[in-house]
Amino acid sequence: MNPLILAFETSCDETAVAVVRGTEALSNIISSQVDLHERFGGVVPEVAARAHVESIRSLAHHALNEAKVHPDELDGVAATAGPGLVGALLVGHSFAKATAWARQLPFVGIDHMEGHLMAPRLQFEDFQPPAVVLLASGGHSQIVHVTDWGQYETLGTTIDDAAGEAFDKLARVMGLGDLKARDGDPKAVDFPRAVPDRPYHFSFSGLKTSVVTYLDKAVASGELPPIEDVAASIQEAIVDVLVDKTFKAVDDTGATTVGGGGGVLANTRLRERFAEEADKR
């Protein structure tokens, strides 16, 4: 039988505790800090760490209760070891290690990006290497070739900003809580697709500059299109690059499986494009 693991994630601004058996999450309890950081326009590391301290113990109890698991039944404890905000990581890592020590259980520190890479297995049991995986979040954008579990080759990464950061910052530039692109025209504005000469690498800082410049000129001339159209065009520029470079890696490596992990993969348009490109192959 697969081991029963109590798992902690505190790499940024959400405290999460789960009880997992194999690829089945028996519980997954999350405490969001969105309201705490909203007035600052971004995540404040010290505020995040303090919020983790305040919530992690009660969340651990909640996760165990929801899973109907007694601590004596656990086979091990795991926690995100990095990358992430140092203070935030320290809270979850320390609490998890203390829990493991107190109950004489093995402890495993999990690489944040490897966690994203493994995430498709929770939903798709057939997700197996060889695979190409797009990892896209607020702090990272990578294309990884998985030849076997534990054997990874990073084919490309961002040379400046991550995709998630571009989404978040441009939404703030336009005065939006998030990028409201669902009802817009993705062809309204032709924003640049960066570093076409580097097949697996990303760059999003130039896109941010292009959008800010476009908005300033459009407002000054009185020719600003509906904000939904601008948002949809930004989204399409980011999604195009993520999808095109990921599937170039699929074609070049001959991988039979493609997957994705990280917060940006929650984007509906990105998931649609991924499915469309996968179906073509």
How does this structure look, described?
This protein has 281 residues and is of the alpha/beta class. The chain folds into two domains: 4-111, Nucleotidyltransferase, domain 5 (2-Layer Sandwich), CATH 3.30.420.40; 119-280, ATPase, nucleotide binding domain (Nucleotidyltransferase, domain 5, 2-Layer Sandwich). It has nine helices and nine strands. The protein has a five-stranded mixed β-sheet. Helix 6 (163-173) runs antiparallel to helix 8. The mean pLDDT is 93.
Tags for this entry?
281 residues; alpha/beta; Nucleotidyltransferase, domain 5; 2 domains; four-stranded mixed beta sheet; 9 strands; globular
Protein topology:
Blueprint (H helix, E strand, L loop, with lengths): L3 E6 L4 E8 L2 E9 L1 H5 L6 H23 L8 E7 L3 H17 L4 E5 H7 L1 H4 L7 E6 L4 E8 L2 E7 L5 H11 L31 H17 L5 H27 L3 E5 L6 H13 L1
Helix pairs in contact: 2-3, 6-7, 6-8, 8-9
Write a concise synopsis of the structure shown:
This protein has 281 residues and is α/β, with parallel strands linked by helices. The protein has helices at 34-38, 45-67, 86-102, 112-118, 120-123, 163-173, 205-221, 227-253, 268-280; strands at 4-9, 14-21, 24-32, 76-82, 107-111, 131-136, 141-148, 151-157, 257-261. It has two domains: 4-111, Nucleotidyltransferase, domain 5; 119-280, ATPase, nucleotide binding domain (Nucleotidyltransferase, domain 5, 2-Layer Sandwich), CATH 3.30.420.
